[in-house]
């Protein structure tokens, strides 16, 4: 779906960034909350109407159509032939069709929002009535409105971003527990399974209407774009938001349909179904009801913002003057009171939802955007105006374009940042002028294309307009051989050369590469600048792998008190070392700039290895490279062992076979991995990588649910509060779980705002550590001394458990090539001359070499299967490689940082002393953990031999 995202080639003539606007993350949360509140409850009914095969197809179609239409509406806001941006949806209607167009949009827009706000109040009243029926529906509605009223007075959407974030979290929580309720209902009663149908022709229309109604977000799009810090990012925000929404919708819809079958059609919503089957005192029902109430409140606040501002504007038009704040707040309160009255007198949720949703979807999300877009395109072309092919940012107040170059280059808003000025494309010949031509010309050049060359058929015209709508080119077709096509061809050629050059460049495993990155469980490949959201995902993924599943075993080795305390201390030290690495990298960059006389040739991409080479010499890079090589190879060996053990266990349980060889499964896995290792880059694995990440998250959530359901352990006295004899083994496992430092520098270099990474890293580490502690302690308390080194072996034997274990193995399988890709790069760089000398067989030799490396990891895995305890193997990697990379090397680099002598003496002495303490701690703790882990190897092997002899 990347074709729906606007590319950076179509920049506007002038754009300005608002410093006080909504960030990308906050805008994504607001957009998610715009759609989630209304549609999430009717989705199981929609799936029941369409069937479990046609339902996903309709959901995908609704997602594509909604995203396309919202991008179309986004472009309409910047297609004013007068050169100014439209302020609102109504302004677009007025520009196209005059006062009738404005009235039509206003009626649909504010009428729809008014009814949807009433729906949220109804939903909250019904939800709380299910929990406390003695109070009644109307009192609950009045209480709800009384709590929401002060929050509805907030003037802009940027001030309710926190509320939206809480609403998103509540939506995720409700989704999880609805899935739990559906699975529990399916397991308790199998009579509905026979009623599950793959498709239903009679219910397709109503099902698709429900899906489209669930994506209702057009009323808030203009307001959301106006509040954004950088409105050019709206297509990407929409992509992320609609993807999150689709995942949530699909999860709730299919969980409800799988749990209740066609009986779902007898309930008004999924909340009623959960309440009817679970009862008011059930914990799952209680959590679902509370979460839906929070979602309703957040959704109401997001939607009420444009409604309140519209009421204020209408009141000012009637009064013909600017109203004081008290009067404006009174207008908002009256509108909220009207929504409350409608909610009290409407008999049910479903009737109003279908009526209002159908109207809004038909007009605001389909008819109006398409009509306005084609009309504005026709107006711009007919008048010969230059039309911006990508929406630009402008100042808050519309001002006419300045012909004087000096005036046009300055921003009147001191709080805004003007990014630049690039001349627009002409209509007949969409040729992008050079920067010099832009500065010298006062306006667009007049086209000299002959009428015959510019003529287009109706089909070509529609095709070009659609391409223009989704961010490709301009509304007219460039003639063959035009400079634009030549530039595009040159760009493509450059990309191909760059891709081929990636094979021959200096291959640090932790540098920014196309298609590969390093870090435990990471698929983060950062080949171009990314925002905060992308950095968050990259950091989170760098900590998610098989190390998470060994945390319960680590807690058993450390104790339910000593484990969390030790994990928190290790997290604090690891975070400090990451900050040391960032600080050293910054100082090295400053030193390089000073040595170059203040002249910079562009952004310096400083890898972990090159940082070591600059700070402590060539051997520093050698130590980093070979430590990364050993850790990556160790991770890949662990992946093969994990896949073989879990896959053979699942096959044994599901087929009833007495014995399934793990070695045979490992050999098959290696044979399947060899062709994947032959890929030049990992672009072909984007979709499998996404599936891998979803598989890892789904597996972890299911393990946590099974552990919670198994609570508590029968004999709590057998649990250790602090397990000192085996605490060194815990240290190795804990460090293994936190091995994400290799991605810190690549992520920072890939960010548009790298200065935000230190603070972002602190938040991520707090969240990750809290999740690790909760997950590990819960599983340990649940299973006690029986906790396995891989927690998946503690899961109950069940069809769903087997499926999720296979799904998790699939995720680990596609993580393997991502972990091996840096190894290929590093070693191939060392042997670069050998491969370059083989002119004809160089590629063939490279394929043989990669296959041999994969086979080597397989052979090591076969030998590692003799070790009965998989957790000890992970602890061995953590105590040696991960301790060196996470603790010792960052502190050592910072100890030898450039510009050290220019620092304050007290500050320098304190920093050096702390660096030495961390180095000593890493060396001592690593050696102790390594020795105890080796001792555990021999002890486990002796116990296994004794059991076999007995």
Description:
The chain has helices spanning 24-39, 43-50, 54-76, 89-131, 137-151, 161-188, 204-214, 221-227, 234-260, 270-278, 283-319, 325-345, 349-382, 405-408, 435-440, 451-454, 458-469, 483-501, 532-542, 546-549, 551-558, 562-595, 608-616, 618-655, 662-677, 686-710, 727-737, 744-750, 757-783, 799-830, 832-837, 842-864, 870-895, 905-949; strands spanning 15-18, 416-420. It is mainly α. The chain has 2 domains: 2-379, Amino acid/polyamine transporter I (Up-down Bundle); 532-949, Amino acid/polyamine transporter I (Up-down Bundle). A two-stranded antiparallel sheet has the order 1-2. Mean pLDDT is 71; it is low at 1-15 and 385-527.
Which characteristics define this entry?
single chain; 950 residues; mainly alpha; Amino acid/polyamine transporter I; 2 domains; two-stranded antiparallel sheet; 34 helices; 68% helix; globular; disordered N terminus
Short description:
The protein is mainly alpha-helical and 950 residues long.
Q: Can you list the strand order of the major beta sheet?
A: 1-2
CATH class designation of the largest domain: Mainly Alpha
User: Mean pLDDT, rounded to whole units?
Assistant: 71
Strand content: under 5%
Output the CATH topology of the largest domain.
Amino acid/polyamine transporter I
**What's the architecture of the largest domain in CATH terms?**
Up-down Bundle
Low-confidence stretches: 1-15, 385-527
Sheet with the most strands, sense and barrel status: 2 strands, antiparallel
**What's the N-to-C terminus distance?**
60 Å
What is the 3D shape?
globular
Q: What would you call the structural class?
A: mainly alpha
Number of strands: 2
Membrane topology: Multi-pass membrane protein
Domain Amino acid transporter transmembrane: 22-374, 530-933
Transmembrane segments: 24-43, 49-74, 103-125, 137-154, 161-183, 203-225, 237-260, 286-308, 329-349, 355-376, 532-555, 561-582, 626-647, 659-678, 690-710, 730-748, 760-783, 803-827, 848-867, 873-896, 917-938
Region (Disordered): 387-456, 469-520
